[in-house]
Design brief:
About 50% of the residues lie in helices and about 10% in strands. It is α/β, with parallel strands linked by helices. It is globular, with a radius of gyration of 21 Å.
């Protein structure tokens, strides 16, 4: 069985999952689109080595920063781990590229597996069993298409895949481009290649949330903590090793510190921008997860959060749907 713990950044997902996984002697599969990359540690709030020693973490540090980890890549690897764990096979038998440094764990298939993170598309790919076209990005084709302009691209999409066009906003250049890319490479509309094939194992989705003011405080504390833990030095090292144009260095937190290192803004300004951009990102995450009616919500500020979630999981394990806990409304 799979227990999903999701929610906005800085909401406390990792800490709760760590405590629960320790109780069960289970594992954690990360659902974070940046924690998959090696050397991007502090800015991604990656679990520390000490935390990974307490509980085996999977799908962390499995991709070089110069490569791209697609949703399809992530889904394939996560599904492989889940299939083997649920069937009772030993995870040590999985190719080492899938594993974090500490794969030793009890292999009982009856223990819950924790899927933890804030990347909604990663979680959806597993929970819904999304069918994802395995078409690698084609830079040459993309360059040609981008030169045309979004309005014309969308008109082209309406001609070759009207069903996909109905689901894509006319101004959504990213999804329009991807749909056309898939069509011109495969000759098949992306809408024909997509769909869902949900897994047959039971899934419980736990969402964490709190008042916006409390979340703002959490984000502010995390931003300060990252800088104290050496975030500036991490970004400086990554810029020197991979160059300032590395796409990952243009992501949340890294871009702002990179501006500071370039002398464009002060460190205080970099921290303030990081806070503001993280706050905006958290709002988008909350909107994404709130659309899923299967998620059961808990207040991360509750003093007995761990026991509340533990009780809900125990009821889920025992196939008891009579839940006396009332999910918190925000």
């Amino acid at each position: 069985m799979l227990i999903v713990i999701c929610g906005a950044t800085a909401i406390g997902k990792s800490g709760l999952a760590l405590a629960l996984a320790q109780r069960y002697g289970s594992i954690i599969i990360s659902a974070d689109s940046r924690q998959v990359y090696r050397e991007f540690n502090i800015g991604t709030a990656k679990p520390t080595i000490a935390e990974q020693d307490l509980v085996p973490h999977y799908l962390i540090d499995i991709c070089n920063p110069t490569h791209t980890m697609t949703v399809a890549d992530y889904q394939q690897q996560a599904q492989s781990i889940l299939a083997q764990r649920i069937s009772g096979q030993r995870l040590e038998d999985i190719s080492p590229v899938l594993l974090s440094p500490n794969p030793l764990v009890s292999q009982s298939p009856n223990l819950p597996i924790f899927l933890v993170g804030g990347t909604g598309l990663y979680i959806k790919s597993i929970v819904r069993g999304m069918k994802i076209p395995r078409v690698a990005p084609n830079n040459e084709l993309r360059s040609q298409l981008l030169s045309i302009g979004q309005s014309q691209l969308y008109a082209m999409l309406q001609q070759v895949d009207g069903f996909a066009a109905q689901k894509i906003h006319p101004h959504d250049s990213v999804r329009t481009l991807r749909a056309l890319e898939v069509f011109y490479i495969t000759g098949t509309p992306i809408s024909d290649l997509q769909g869902e094939n949900p897994p047959d194992y039971p899934i419980l989705q736990i969402g964490l949330d709190c008042d916006v003011s409390h979340l703002d405080s959490r984000i502010a504390r995390r931003t300060e903590s990252m800088v104290k833990d050496g975030f500036v030095e991490e970004v400086e090292y990554l810029c020197q090793k991979y160059g300032r144009d590395l796409p990952l260095l243009n992501t949340l937190g890294y871009q702002e510190i990179k501006q500071y290192l370039a002398g464009d803004i002060s460190l205080d300004e970099a921290k303030e921008l990081t806070f503001l951009h993280t706050r905006q990102f958290a709002k988008r995450q909350r909107t994404w997860f709130r659309k899923d009616g299967q998620i059961e919500w808990f207040d991360t500020e509750s003093p007995d959060l761990l026991e509340q979630v533990w009780l809900r999981i125990q009821k889920f394990i025992n196939n008891d749907n009579a839940d006396n806990l009332t999910p918190v409304k925000f």
